[in-house]
Write a sequence for this structure.
């Protein structure tokens, strides 16, 4: 079995580390810091909109829409990853993160998207939701009570209820209530979602927890489901207990970052890595590499005050894109990949009126095994694999494709490493 070095501790890095550990490899993660899961909605987006933009219709039949999208977008990462790897990667996650287990048993799972409310009352499609958002899935004819908290910012409850009630995508009715819930004994006036979640985690003795439950029960009508900001505990059990006490269906709506549902996934994956004895080294920045022919033999890693060379048989570059600092554009407009100086692919963008779109679509180009390639398609390093946000050609937050690309590329690369290892 091989020594594998993974760069990055986002969804790509943590998932691929666990996938490779399952194959029996010795895996080490070096990362500048924690990854983008704390910015994530906590849902699994594969493809939200038919042509990847919001002015087209929401995807209903996921497999056929994804195949059509790949045929129409040959430079998109999905064209290299392929639909099977996307679905296999997502299935791996839902089978390994217990938040999602219920979804996998649903016969519609990965066949069709569901429609979810956002924190401004817009409606967005997604492929899989955790248990805490199962009742947030909007269904025609249903009535919703949208619960806001006065001391929690970024959840304009009346706007959310009004926007949902007039959505062109679903026919529902929603009304709003706002509850004044002093958090931490009233010490917090603008408490974040994370602070609320921590206070509800304190178990049945939490005064905040029982005050919220009683206030909701007083307002709730028999035929209503509750929609509430995604703050019902960092611990997933808290949501389950609170929903049972409210005695009706409760669904969370993701908030702007820091995201409690994203953090739950991050925590579960991180704990699983620790239990698997995968060494996660934070504040460890990959700054360069050493190669022998077309193989990377070691990565230079900077930790406080010194740079060391970490040797590995296979290297997984899961260091993300612009948001994580792996891709950067200098004052001359030159875009660079920071560790391996890989060539940057800038796709043609048909609608040129938004220059930033072309920039955000730039990134590394990969083949079907996730090895980085040059503009002619030649593999640059045969034991280097690029995953997730560092791959160019996509606008994940617009297309709603981020987790599909990330998990699909992780699955494709780990299967290639498995095959490569068998051939060694
Ligand atoms: C604000 C925001 C909103 C988004 N919304 C959506 C959405 O609604 N739908 C959707 O589908 N997608 C969305 N995305 C995209 C989605 O979040 C990404 O596709 C996904 O997080 C990619 O994960 P990753 O692991 O590749 O990268 P990241 O999560 O960015 O992880 C990169 C990791 O690499 C580390 N790192 C970086 N450089 C180095 C280095 N030199 N050495 C060591 N470590 C390094 C970082 O510290 C980090 O741990 C959004 C992204 C952002 C930023």
């Amino acid at each position: 079995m091989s020594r594998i070095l993974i760069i990055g501790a986002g969804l790509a890095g943590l998932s691929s580390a666990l996938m490779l550990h399952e194959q029996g490899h010795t895996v080490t993660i070096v990362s500048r810091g924690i990854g983008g899961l704390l910015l994530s909605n906590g849902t699994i987006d594969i493809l939200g909109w038919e042509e990847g933009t919001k002015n087209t219709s929401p995807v209903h039949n996921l497999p056929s829409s994804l195949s059509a999208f790949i045929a129409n977008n040959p430079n998109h990462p999905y064209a290299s990853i392929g639909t099977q790897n996307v679905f296999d990667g997502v299935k791996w996650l839902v089978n390994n993160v217990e938040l999602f287990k219920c979804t996998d048993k649903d016969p519609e799972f990965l066949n069709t998207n569901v429609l979810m409310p956002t924190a401004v009352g817009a409606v967005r499609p997604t492929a899989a939701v955790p248990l805490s958002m199962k009742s947030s899935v909007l269904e025609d004819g249903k009535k919703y009570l949208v619960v806001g908290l006065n001391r929690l910012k970024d959840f304009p409850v009346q706007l959310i209820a009004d926007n949902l009630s007039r959505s062109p995508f679903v026919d529902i009715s929603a009304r709003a209530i706002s509850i004044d819930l002093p958090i931490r004994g009233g010490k917090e006036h603008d408490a974040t979602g994370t602070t609320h979640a921590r206070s509800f985690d304190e178990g049945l003795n939490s005064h905040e927890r029982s005050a919220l439950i009683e206030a909701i029960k007083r307002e709730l009508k028999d035929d209503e489901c509750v929609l509430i900001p995604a703050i019902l505990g960092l611990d997933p059990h808290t949501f389950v207990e609170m929903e049972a006490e409210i005695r009706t269906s409760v669904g969370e709506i993701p908030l702007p970052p820091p995201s409690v549902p994203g953090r739950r996934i991050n925590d579960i994956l991180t704990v699983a890595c620790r239990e698997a004895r995968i060494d996660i080294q934070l504040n460890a920045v990959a700054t360069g590499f050493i190669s022998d022919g077309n193989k990377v033999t070691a990565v230079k890693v900077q930790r406080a005050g010194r740079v060391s060379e970490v040797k590995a048989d296979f290297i997984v570059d899961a260091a993300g894109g612009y948001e994580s600092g792996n891709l950067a554009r200098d004052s001359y407009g030159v875009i660079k990949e920071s560790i391996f100086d890989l060539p940057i692919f800038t796709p043609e963008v048909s609608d040129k009126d938004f220059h930033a779109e072309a920039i955000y679509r730039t990134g590394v180009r990969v083949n079907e095994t996730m090895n980085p390639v040059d503009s002619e398609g030649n593999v640059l390093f045969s034991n280097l694999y690029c995953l997730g946000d560092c791959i160019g050609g996509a606008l994940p937050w617009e297309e709603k494709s981020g987790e599909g690309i990330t998990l699909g590329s992780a699955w494709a690369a780990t299967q290639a490493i498995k095959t490569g290892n068998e051939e060694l």
In short: The radius of gyration is 22 Å.
